[in-house]
Design a protein that fits this description.
By secondary structure, this protein is an all-alpha fold. The protein has helices at residues 3-40, 45-83. The chain starts with a helix and ends in an 8-residue tail after the last helix. This is MFS transporter.
Amino acid sequence: MSAAERSQASGIVQTIRQLGGTLGVAVIGSIVMGVDHQVTHSPLPQHAADAITVGFWVATAVFGLALVCAVALLSKDRITAAADGGAEPAV
């Protein structure tokens, strides 16, 4: 991989990371606010804590799903690399 390709890949990774973080906070915040207003209709701190708990469980489920997908994709790449004969010889 050339230096130009590495710098482009780095920029793409950072952009996707920023976008994912922003969307993640927005979606989890919307879920928390939706649960808080839909279920409780009360300004009590305990009800807010219950809504935040739901948000954390949703975030945990999404993380678990992403972890399973990442492990599946990484193991697929390793199988393909091993079938190709492994590493290239050094020059």
